[in-house]
Amino acid sequence: MIGYVTLGTNDLKRAAAFYDQIAALLDTPRMMEFDGFIAWGRPGGGAGIGLTRPYDGQPATVGNGVMVALAARDKAHVDEIYRTALANGGTDEGAPGPRGDSGFYAAYFRDPDGNKLNAFFMSFPSSPEGGEG
């Protein structure tokens, strides 16, 4: 089980503003903050996200093939997270839509530092379209 994911940033203030907007849509508050590090999550809840300036003092870089997936409530929530990400300095990596025919609906974007994220919703055949599954 994943406890949390930490992403590097070269501009903590800018990155925090981006993640504050996304976290608000996910009803996930900041749970830890100190010089050079901020984390969003809920104690005892699902995996959280932390942002940090690299400890070694070197510039933060993006991991090729690394992505953080954010669980959305439904398809409309995926769309809202995607729009919010782009409106707050994120860049497009794949507009919201179905991926394959498995009930997987997702949108892909990068944060201002270039870290790749997605917002997704997985519906099941017995679920109403876009409903809870």
TrEMBL record:
It holds the Pfam family Glyoxalase. It comes from Marinicauda algicola. InterPro entries: Glyas_Bleomycin-R_OHBP_Dase (IPR029068), Glyas_Fos-R_dOase_dom (IPR004360), VOC_core (IPR037523). This is VOC family protein. Residues 1-122 form the VOC domain. It comes from the Bacteria.
